[in-house]
Amino acid sequence: MQVDERGYYGQFGGAFIPEMLYPNVEELRTTYRSIMERQSFKKEFDGLLKTFVGRPTPLYLASRLSEKYKAKVYLKREDLCHTGAHKVNNTVGQIILAKHLGKSKIIAETGAGQHGVATATVCALMGMECIVYMGKLDMERQKPNVERMKILGAAVIPSLSGSMTLKDATNEAMRHWISHPEDTHYIIGSVVGPHPYPDMVARFQSVISKEIRSQLTEEQGNPYPDYVIACVGGGSNAAGAFYHFVEEQHVNLIGVEAAGKGVDTGESAATTVLGKPGVLHGSKTLLMQTADGQVIEPYSISAGLDYPGIGPMHAHLFDVGRVRFLNATDEEAMNAGIALSRLEGIIPAIESAHAVAALDKLTFDTEDVVVINLSGRGDKDLETYIRWGKY
Amino acid sequence: MEVIDQKENRINALFKKNKKGLLSVYYTAGFPMRDDTVRIGKLLEASGADILEIGVPFSDPVADGSVIQASNKAALDNGMTLRLLLDQVSELRNRVKAPIILMGYFNPIFQFGVKAFCEAAAAAGVDGLIIPDLPLLEYQEMYKATFEANGLQNIFLISPTTSEERIRTIDSVSNGFIYAVSSSSTTGAKKDFSKDQRSYFERLQKMKLKNPLLIGFGISNREAFTAACKYSAGAIVGSAFISMLKKSDNMEEDIPEFVNALKNS
After folding, report:
1. Closest C-alpha to B53, from B257, B238, B254
2. Same domain, residue pair A193 and A309
3. pLDDT tens digits for range A5-14
4. Chain A residues whose beta carbon lies within 8 Å of the beta carbon of residue B185
5. List of long-range contacts for B109-112, beta carbons under 8 Å, 24+ apart
6. Counting C-beta atoms within 10 Å of the first and last residue's C-beta, which end of chain A has fewer, N or C?
7. B132 by DSSP, 3-state: which?
8. What does the pLDDT average to over A115-130?
9. Helix runs in A130-206, H state only
10. Using CA atoms, how far apart are residues A195 and A191, in angstroms rounded to an integer?
11. How far does A183 lie from chain B, in Å, by closest CA?
């Protein structure tokens, strides 16, 4: 999982940015590791994860789910994090980093609004000015999260360009950063973007697999599951859940992408199936695009998974076969979300329901220990569940 | 008329001949109509533009402001592709003598294949490339040899936040000119140059770089063009030209008028 000197994971990664962003990204690149090593940083980060975010999150043995799938199925309860998803692990880390860099303003992009809410939350906590770019279409689809950000004091700016979704919000945030290079830090929400973002965000999220290891050790005397399953849009929760297991070849790592209406329907977000190497938002990675190199707008019922690429580390882990990628359709994910609600009393975010849906696609031995990273809760998705209706 | 060495790049020849007041005009290929690329280039040269900077449309142009974004989208909706653009440039090359520079983001070129693209661009008569999201290091390590083998000059951007050391490095790698972005911003019209911008231009002037400078971003009128020319070999106009094209119903009149209003007395 280690990124090389030049910011690459194998053939993927790098920092493909306009020269105007070079000073900012270079400053981050040369300082992020040393700032994260500072005692004052660690103390504040660990302290906030504990008292503000509510970590460690439980590793819950889902017994009825285990019975159904004839394996020992654990849920890593990132849905219990403050703000309702794992996204806040990264925003807490980055805002402390921004303080160490002497920045006073924060910008972010958001799709479903979870990262926007997590960013607005930490900006309120630190008393920093916060601007969140969000596609106009997403603002209409995710109204409650827009209002949450506003209550928290953030300015939410609609992106009107392109398809008016996450990819365009990211473009707008980058343009804002180009125009405000001195006082502003850009908190990217996933393991995407120019180096060092993928590595930095993965490190902040790696607390997930660190906790899984110590919780499993307590449960069973060793830190190893047989499977770790996580959904992948950009891939931040998966990066965090896989991080401390990548070197352990006997742990099966499963990434689950959104197939949308089906990978062959033209309405999908399954990048490892449909993508080719390309360059977007500062890194070379797998990207859904036309033969002419224009980026294709992805589709998923889950706003958090409809991104046309995946983080460069995932592209690499896919390339070398370390992570096996599956995909789940809208229907499979919705059914899995409703099944989890009925079996365990947990309504998952639709993103996370994609990871749960993978249980139907795998064959386990009864002794197998399976950890599903339940990255977020379903409160934000109630309207989608209601519209889906089959419960 | 001066005879130009066939092997000398048109960009170098131009800067050798004219040290001051050069006008480079950016326009997006395939905008407003798909087949306007050749016509606009011809009209620009006939009106007195010195360099033609042709934009390669891309779905996600992060360094561009709203005007150029919209023209990129319109061009793609018109059915523009990189292959079609190279055909248009090839035709344009037979009609104009001015240097032709392609400005575009890396991904379409990467998909085409960098080597195949450089060969096709050179064959079409392209003289230089501006690829804002292709970083210096990547260029040097992976692509410089291919660009040079095809006689293509890679034009780098610098901005007010670029350090002196990095400007020196870019100067040493450049051959042609350096594109000095006038402010920390994306492309698009701004008000007059500020004090800070002027002192940045003066700082650049004093560095005595081996490459000439063209100043771009936010230049939309004669005052800004003249001011930019005071500190450099000339200036680049883009968004203002695109805005004019969008409104124009008679390019044969409007393009000469636009160029005249900027540079000719």
Report:
1. B238
2. no
3. 999 999 999 9
4. 20, 178-179
5. B109/A293, B109/B56, B109/B82, B110/A277, B110/A278, B110/A279, B110/A284, B110/A293, B111/A276, B111/A278, B111/A289, B111/A291, B111/A292, B111/A293, B112/A293, B112/B82, B112/B83
6. C
7. coil
8. 98
9. 136-141, 143-151, 166-179, 197-205
10. 10
11. 12
Q: How confident is the model at residue A164 (pLDDT cuts 50, 70, 90)?
A: confident
Pinpoint the alpha helices (H) of A79-135.
87-100, 114-126
Report the residue from B58, B69, B134 with minimal CB separation from A161: B69
> For A98-110, what is each residue's pLDDT tens digit?
999 999 999 999 9
- Whether B81 and A22 lie within 8 Å, measured CB to CB: no
CA–CA separation, B53 and B33 (whole Å)? 17
Domain that holds residue A101: 20-48+87-201
Counting the structural domains of chain A, the total is: 2
Q: How far is CA A317 from CA A209, A214, A265, A276, in A?
A: 17, 24, 26, 15
Q: Are A109 and A170 in contact (CB under 8 A)?
A: yes
Which residue among A76, A103, A109, A332 is the active-site one?
A109
| Mean pLDDT of the B6-35 span | 93
Q: What is the mean pLDDT of residues A326-345?
A: 98
Average pLDDT over residues A53-81: 98
pLDDT of residue B265: 58
Please tell me the distance from the alpha carbon of residue B134 to that of residue A170, in angstroms, as a whole number.
18
Residues A214 and A144 in one domain: no
Domain boundary among A201, A218, A235: A201
pLDDT level of residue B191 (50, 70, 90 thresholds): confident
A338 pLDDT more than 50: yes
Q: Rounded to the nearest 5 degrees, what angle is found at the Cα of B29, between the Cα atoms of B53 and B107?
A: 85
Q: What is the pLDDT of residue B76?
A: 97
d(CA A172, CA B176): 31
For residue B8, the one-letter residue type is: E
Name the domain boundary from A159, A183, A201.
A201
Indicate which CATH number applies to the domain containing A330.
3.40.50.1100
Q: Which residues of B touch A19 (CB under 8 A)?
A: 132, 136, 156-159, 162, 181
**Three-state SS annotation for B10-60:** HHHHHHHHCCCCEEEEEEECCCCCHHHHHHHHHHHHHHCCCEEEEEECCCC
Which parts of B96-205 are beta strand (E)? 100-104, 128-130, 153-154, 157-158, 178-181
CATH, domain range B20-260: 3.20.20.70
Average pLDDT over residues B176-183: 95
pTM: 0.96
**Nearest partner of A373 among A353, A343, A347, judged by Cα:** A353
